[in-house]
């Protein structure tokens, strides 16, 4: 069983970019696929994107063209561009098991919080 520690979450404005990282407890060479998952507020955890050992990428959310995943020996990264408020969630890294519902996965890490918002106190002025 491989475990992951996620990092890199932050508050970012809409349209911005963020790069998440996760460190695996052991080499990923024996792992068929790894994925990034997220749990938006009040919703179930879902697959965002995965990458298998042949480089094939699978998308589970509306992130195609905006998010990319990369994997190394014991690291997995998620590059997020053109972020939207609906991308707000806690993001997790986990081995991806295509035939298993995400709700049945166990041994999740703590995740990392990504918040896409203009920020507290920011005012948007619209000129006539």
Report the major sheet: 6 strands, mixed
Query: pLDDT under 50 segments (min length 5)?
Result: 121-128
Helix/strand order: EEEEEEEEEE
Biggest sheet strand line-up: 2-10-9-4-5-6
Approximate shape: globular
User: How much of the polypeptide forms β-strand, as a percent range?
Assistant: 35-45%
Give the overall average pLDDT.
91
Helicity level: under 10%
Quantity of strands, as a count: 10
| N-C termini distance | 58 Å
Structural class: mainly beta
Tally of alpha and pi helices:
0
The Rg value, from CA coordinates, equals 15 Å
Q: In a nutshell, what does this entry contain?
A:
By secondary structure, the chain is mainly β. It contains no helices and ten strands. Strand 7 (67-71) and strand 8 (75-80) form a beta hairpin.
Description:
The chain is mainly beta. Helix content is 0%, strand content 41%. The chain has no helices and ten strands. The chain has strands at 4-7, 11-12, 18-24, 33-39, 46-52, 57-59, 67-71, 75-80, 89-95, 112-116. It has a six-stranded mixed sheet, with no helix packed on it. Residues 121-128 have low confidence and may be disordered.
């Amino acid at each position: 069983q491989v475990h992951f520690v996620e990092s890199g979450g932050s508050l970012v404005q809409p349209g911005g970019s963020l790069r998440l990282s996760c460190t695996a407890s052991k080499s990923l060479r024996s792992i068929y696929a790894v994925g990034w998952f997220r749990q938006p507020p009040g919703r179930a955890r879902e697959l965002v994107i995965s990458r298998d050992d042949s480089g094939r990428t699978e998308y589970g959310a509306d992130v195609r063209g905006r998010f990319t995943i990369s994997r190394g020996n014991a690291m997995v990264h998620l590059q997020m561009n053109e972020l939207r408020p609906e991308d707000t969630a806690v993001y997790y890294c986990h081995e991806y098991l295509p035939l298993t519902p995400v709700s049945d996965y166990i041994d999740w890490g703590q995740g990392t919080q990504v918040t896409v918002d203009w920020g507290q106190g920011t005012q948007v002025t619209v000129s006539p």
